Fold:
Amino acid sequence: MKQKSILDFTKFKCIVIGVSAGGMESLTRLFAHIPKDFPLPILVVQHMHKLQNDYFITHHNCTCILPVKEAEEKEKIRSGTIYFAPPDYHLLVEEDETLALSVDEKVNYSRPSIDVLFESAADVYKEKLIGIILTGANNDGAEGIRIIKQKGGFTIAQNPKDAEFPVMPQSAIDLVEMDRILSLKEMTTEFIRWDQEDEI
Amino acid sequence: MKADIEKIEIDLFLEAIFKCYGYDFQLYARASIKRRIKHLMKKNGYNRISDMTSDILHDPSVFEKVVYDFSITVTEMFRDPSFYQSLRNKIIPYLKTYPFIKIWHAGCATGEEVYSLAILLKEEGIYNKATIFATDFNEHALDVARQGIYSLKDTQKYSTNYQKAGGKASFSDYYYARYNSAIMRKSLSKNVTFANHNLVTDGVFGEMHLILCRNVLIYFNKDLQNKVLTLFNESLIHGGFLALGSKETLSFSSIENDFKPIDKKNKIFRKIKKG
Structure:
């Protein structure tokens, strides 16, 4: 039977995305197709150098129709907004659906760490969370994906064959039975068509 | 609806620590404290948070470990070089006009940023008229800070930060190396008083010209943030300066209107002169 590919986003409350090496281009492609009435907030951890300036925010704001911003501590999470973890800070979600930052030690040699975001978001959103793991050259995010799955959330990995750096999505796939393994192109199709079908 | 057992366990854990030992983590931002508790649980081989709670109540040595892990923050010399550059160029000129200067470094942890500040004051020629109160509630961290001995392998990174922060000499002028350690020069801590102070429960430090408290407030919830910011407000002279971490802000806080931003990016604020 052919797998139905359209996700009913209205069943969810939040999307988290983890990405490392090769992230800039992948996210640009992914975000370029999101419609402006997209119903969920998107929280992103992208590994980057701690002295990275905010060029990447400016860049995504130019290429994406949704507002893109750096996450601020205690900020209320709003639908249809894309938040990035600031360089050198972990990004977490609080129970009251606000954002939190920390400078706790690195996890998987990373700050921000994908696992830290995914685990805290899974605690809050449980089955209403979509976790997406994209290109990268390390295994950060795999444990986070496992916890999202454990709490009933929906998990998507970029197809390693499609990823510029396959290690990160592959690590998640090795650890967890993913709900979807998709190419970037297939993912963009889901985002574009979010309101045109009504079932998973 | 199924009760959130884990949440109950965390509440009880924090309440036990407060009632038994007086350290209040109940107003800390939950997501990070939860992570730390779980980390602690794994590290010490517990399966349940409530098992750990029980041991903490009956064994102070277990509590010691917990409080150490809870408060340890990751820091480095000249963390955020652009902040130190801003301090040097925008704040020091004001401080130079006072006959003496009192500085409070709140939440100094293991002291790396205190020594960074001392170096900066020395290079600007105002160290001798400065008194620095460096406080933390973690006695172990304060011991490290007092000794001023750090890992030699980190000095290369610190040296880079120091240069980016506008350092006028060579970072190696400020420590001597022995075995694998970098021992900070005693002249840097001559005017520093390291003291135990808990921002959650302890009171005002009087008449400060500058308060630094960086990457501490992000761990507090909104109520505790406001309480601590009020403490800082009351501890500063009119025209005094408050320096926060690069992602911390006075916006929407209870003291917002008493301060004006001096450097928005580096989060340096000045208490408005009244009258």
Summary: The first helix of chain B runs from residue 5 to 21. The domain at 81-271 of chain B is CATH 3.40.50.150 (Rossmann fold).
